Structures are given as C-alpha cells and as structure tokens.
Amino acid sequence: xxxxSRLERINEEIRAGLSEVLAQSKDIRFQDRMITVSGVxxxxxxxxxxxxxxxxxxxxDKKEVFSALEHAKGFLRTRLAHTVILxxxxxxxxxxxxxxxxxxxxxxxxxxxxxxxxxTTDVGDTDAAEDNDEQ
Length: 135
What we know:
The protein has 5 helices and 3 strands, in the order αββααβαα. By secondary structure, the protein is of the alpha+beta class. It folds into 2 domains: 95 residues, K homology (KH) domain (GMP Synthetase, Chain A, domain 3, 2-Layer Sandwich), CATH 3.30.300; 34 residues, no CATH class. Helix 1 crosses helix 3.
C-alpha cells in the first residue's frame, strides 16, 4: 500500500466526517445554509489539513460561515476526532472553494459564444431526423 492511497483515504474520511459534523451542528450560523465540504488535502504527517468549503448564498452568508468555521475550529476538530478514527487529528484550515462559481462563469461564457438560434438539443435532433429520412 502506498502513502498516496492512504492519504487519499484519510482525506475522504475527513471530508465525510466534517460534512456529517456540519450537517448535525446545532450552531445557528450553519443551519439553513447550504455548506459543502468539497475537498480535503492533508499533510503527509497528518499535522494539518486544508479543507475546501463551498457555501451557496450571498457574499454575506459566505463571510458569516467562514467566520463561524474559524471560531469553531477547535470544536470541529474535537467532533471530528469522535467521527474519524485517527491517532492524530490534523489542525484544520478552511479555504473557500470557488470551483462551482468558476464552472458557472465558463458555462455562461460558452452560452454567449454559441449562436442564439443553435442549441445543443437542436443539433442532436437534426441528425436523428436526417437518419430517419435516409431509411
């Protein structure tokens, strides 16, 4: 077994554990907010873990959630220790995951670049109609 695959398993366990802890949290700053733990990267010595968090909502919602995460870091680490069986639970640092926003931006740019009279469903339908005419 390689160290790489072990770290990948640990990263996934921490991601799933934090997701569960945040979902079960009674903290009002986390309730009624769509918070996703999208990724974790742990140092090889398990001393630190960078956690990517995606928050759906306004900029104010994001600021409040990240402020709450920083404030609750110790509590989250303690709860994580009860959820994930590790000898050492890493120190957590939270980073905003902007990949979903980036994907939306790219998608809207692609829609603008396509001619307005052609859509992806129209292209597939025309090919199927031409195939039926040939038979």
